[in-house]
Amino acid sequence: MGDEDRMVKMEVDYSDTVDKVIPECETLAAEKKLNEAIDKLLVLEKQTRGAGDAISSSKVLVCIVALCYKVQDWTLLKEHITSLCKKRGHFKLAVTKMVQRCCEMVPEIEDKERKMDLIEVLRTVTEGKIYVENERARVTRTLAAIYEKDDVPEKAAKVLQELQVETFGTMEKKEKSTDCDSALIPLL
């Protein structure tokens, strides 16, 4: 078993600290002190991860990406998504919650280039991670829809074909049938 597969017993509960620090960081970000807020959150993230507090770690990761999104610092958002997913010893729960929050951002972004950049970052960080395969499938479907709208069905078909068939088995029936239909239409 790999390091991330083992169960980690929570040594310290950081929930009270997280509930106190997150609003402080939101205020800092609103005052245009995003880097200061993120630095504070990254210190807390390391503490929660080291202490085995997956729930608090999840809240911190979600807050980091949410703050970057709120102030529309796209470069910082992409950097933190990438770096937080690569950290050794991260909890699957924390990464999953962060990726899910990022997936919620995708339909809210109106600028096509920014949307596609975020989709590509999400597709990269979720590649090969079974615990976020549904999220990968959803952003891939969104990317394919963009390609279809741009009248590039070959690209839409290509990205949809990259998805593993097994992924569809873990989705709910309605979403599964929609995805299968989406994958076939560009091929026709």
Largest beta-sheet characterization? none
Q: How large, in whole angstroms, is the Cα Rg?
A: 18 Å
Mean pLDDT: 85
Return residue spans where pLDDT drops below 50 for at least 5 consecutive residues.
Answer: 1-6
Strand runs, count = 0
Structural class estimated from helices and strands: mainly alpha
Figure out the total of helices.
10
Percent helix range = over 70%
Observed structural traits:
single chain, 72% helix, mainly alpha, 188 residues, disordered N terminus, 10 helices, globular
In short:
The chain has helices spanning 15-30, 34-51, 54-70, 74-86, 92-105, 112-126, 133-149, 153-161, 165-169, 173-184.
Give an account of the 3D structure:
Mean pLDDT is 85; it is low at 1-6. Helices cover 72% and strands 0% of the residues. Helix 1 runs antiparallel to helix 2 (34-51) and helix 4 (74-86) packs parallel to helix 6. The protein is built from ten helices and no strands. The radius of gyration is 18 Å and the shape is globular. It is mostly helical.
